[in-house]
Design a protein that fits this description.
- The chain is an all-alpha fold.
- It has one domain.
- It has three helices and no strands.
- α2 packs across α3.
- The longest helix has 133 residues.
- The protein is rod-shaped.
Length: 181
């Protein structure tokens, strides 16, 4: 096949030259140009506006998508800011709750300490009163014992019986004088 083309080219070279291979004959060139012009005119009149409309619609769709994306981005940014504010508000609220709990705990602690101090003071007062009562009872017993021993001793010393009531009164008076000093 290549040989055939080479032979045809050599024949053409010999007759008309090398340029005739590239340029068609005039009887083929004119109808080809007319056909090209008709097809070009038809495409320009019929398909051109449709292609232009298609390009405009595509451009409008892309612009709409860009605007929607920008609106979505703005909304997302707004939501992000809202969430940040909510988180900071929640943190502040949590800190306030913790602080309130601390204050309540301090109040409860102070109440418990005050109650314990009151109970300790009451126990101390009761113990003091019990000690005073026990001291008074022991002192009264000691007086009675001393009085009884004194009367017994005096009876033995005197050798006779003394009036026990008078003797006891005398001893009580003596003990009271000792306590007064």
């Amino acid at each position: 096949m290549t040989n055939v083309l080479i032979l045809a080219a050599e024949e053409a070279e010999g007759a008309e030259g090398g340029a005739s291979l590239l340029l068609p004959h005039l009887n083929e060139l004119v109808p080809g140009l007319i056909a090209f012009a008709l097809i070009f005119f038809f495409i320009w009149k019929k398909a051109g506006p449709a292609l232009n409309q298609l390009a405009a619609d595509r451009q409008a769709a892309i612009s709409g998508q860009i605007k929607e994306a920008e609106a979505a981005k703005a909304e997302a940014h707004s939501l992000l800011e809202d969430y940040k504010q909510q988180v900071s508000g929640a943190k502040a609220e949590a800190n306030a709750i913790v602080e309130d709990a601390r204050k309540s705990a301090d109040v409860v602690k102070a109440g418990i300490v005050a109650e314990a101090n009151d109970e300790a003071a009451a126990i101390l007062m009761k113990a003091q009163a019990d000690a005073d009562g026990e001291k008074a009872r022991a002192l009264a017993e000691a007086r009675n014992e001393v009085a009884g021993l004194s009367v017994a001793l005096a009876e033995k010393v005197v050798g006779g019986s003394l009036d026990a009531d008078k003797q006891k009164a005398l001893i009580d008076q003596y003990i009271a004088e000792l306590e007064g000093e």
